[in-house]
């Protein structure tokens, strides 16, 4: 358990903040209950203020930072989960794949991105990760994505790709 007399300090990046009571702004609070969320992705704490004695809830979550994406032209942009999901969804359009399967594929790609442990990643690497997941999920979607991603110069290159998935 936490020492009731010590103000709780939250660190975020280069700044730190003292946990204050939302009712009276007093800094001395005590944790009276701690629970893990059902999903296991955050910790819920019930706290009680020593000054006004009111209770309040705080949540602690891990802060996940995806790498910055380096585009082919050298620009750097923030990673976008929505953009990844849209690309995968476009390749899977009108294919017999459930939303759950798409979510799982996107999660697998994002997990691999995080496990690389890099601050910056070329967009080409993300494309390769997407192709790997699509190849496992749906061959037609894989060919659709690869045909755009690899920007084939002639029919022969495309034919080689199709033969690869047969």
Please outline the major beta sheet: 3 strands, antiparallel
Number of helices: 5
Report the sheet-strand fraction. Answer: 15-25%
Number of domains: 2
Beta-strand segment tally:
8
Helix content: 25-40%
Query: Overall pLDDT, averaged?
Result: 85
Low-confidence stretches: 1-16
Q: Can you list the strand order of the major beta sheet?
A: 3-4-5
Order of helices and strands: EEEEEEEHHEHHH
Alpha-beta classification = alpha+beta
Q: Distance N terminus to C terminus? A: 59 Å
Shape estimate: elongated
Calculate Rg over CA atoms: 23 Å
Would you write up a description of this structure?
The protein has 5 helices and 8 strands; from the N terminus they run E-E-E-E-E-E-E-H-H-E-H-H-H. It is α+β, with helices and mostly antiparallel strands and 166 residues long. Strands 3-4-5 form a 3-stranded antiparallel sheet, with no helix packed on it. A 3-stranded mixed sheet has the order 7-6-8. Strands 1-2 form a two-stranded antiparallel sheet.
Strand and helix map with partners:
Layout: E1 9-12, E2 15-18, E3 29-36, E4 42-49, E5 55-61, E6 68-70, E7 76-77, H1 81-91, H2 99-116, E8 120-122, H3 123-137, H4 139-149, H5 155-165
Parallel strand pairs: 6-8
Antiparallel strand pairs: 1-2, 3-4, 4-5, 6-7
